[in-house]
Amino acid sequence: MLNAYMGYSLIRSELTKAIDYSNIMESAHSILRVADSDLKTFETRFDSMARHVRKIGIDTKYTAVEIAGAVKYLSMAGMNIETINKSIRPITNLALIGDNDVSYIADLATNIMAGYDIHNDSMDSVADIISSTISRSNVNIVEMAESYKMAAGYLRMAGVDFTESSAAIGLLGNMGLKGTLAGTSLRALSTCLLYTSDAADEARSV
Q1: How far apart are CA 174 and CA 6, in angstroms?
Q2: Tens digits of per-residue pLDDT, 103-118?
């Protein structure tokens, strides 16, 4: 009797996961289809991406449902099928480093890229840069995202390279300045750089 109940519970659990996965991927399907430029091949390309999602769900500690959730976030961020296919594994690896929810990391990573006006195709390199900073500094991706929320636009206008800004956030983190504190400091620095640059341009034009 107990074995039968356990078997029923297992089947019910797997069925629930399958339904959840199907519902999330259907949402992503709808979002991606609206903006797709080649509807003739859309279903084939989407199915290939779905297989990739399920494989990551097998290869990592995250389930296919969790990976599908990240796919939905990426589709909502404006990524197409090909870009999501390239980005989902780097995002999963980034989530693994901090033992974070993969959908949440997808959201944070795309927010950072948007703030720095980085093209969606560059997720792989962005994830590598963030991973390097997290691994070598006393900061995590949540704190980095908070810093970038405060300073990304200013850093970009000041001409500070993304790699350099990531390293600066790591250094500030090692000194105890994290999240919004680090972001505020970097925003002030960027403003000074912009002011100095404008003043120099004005002096040269005189």
Answers
A1: 49
A2: 999 999 999 999 999 9
